[in-house]
Amino acid sequence: MRLRTSVIVTVLVCLGMVMPCFAQKGQSKLDADVRALLEQHDKALNAQDLKGVMDTYASDPNIVLMGTGPGEAYVGEEAIGSAYNQFFTRFKANTLNFKYDWISVGSKDNVAWFAVTVTVQAMVDKEKRERAFNISGTLEKMKGEWRFLGMHFSRLGAENHASPQSN
Question: Which residue of 17, 27, 116, 123 has the fewest C-beta atoms within 10 A of its own C-beta?
């Protein structure tokens, strides 16, 4: 009886150790998809390619981009496009570098969510600058592709910088 109990406990412990691997494997496709979408967004942002940035968003009149402070809430393609055009004035094109420090993702059906911390380096006024951001968002899978429904970014010290007006 003692041997049987030991075998059962050993099997349960082994299953307990292996199950997280199966769960991670199931999430790895989502993780890769979210990272790919973020990379697509970052590449377009770096190139100051507004169409490319907007292609990462869902085609929905209620898409949202929200920043850190007052006046940084943008709803719809036009408002979000205007915000990105304002962002483009703050750095030289093709000088951004993104380093993702942490990412968490989840999903249910055709809706997913993510949270990341990222460090961004850029050339601003001929000076290399670095800022850390927290970014979170909601995604929808449309025609087999994930797209942003909403994105929120925050950065420490942002309240000390002027922000563009939202619509």
Answer: 17
Using the CB atoms, write b or e for 87-117: b if 16+ within 10 Å. bbeebeeeebebeeeeeebebeeeebbbebe
DSSP at 47: T
> Is the Cβ–Cβ distance between 56 and 40 less than 8 Å?
yes
pTM of the full predicted structure?
A: 0.77
Q: H-helix or E-strand containing 105? A: strand 97-108
Which domains are seen in the chain, by residue range?
A: 28-160 (3.10.450.50)
Widest CA span of the chain, in angstroms? 76
- What's the chain's Rg over C-alpha atoms? 21
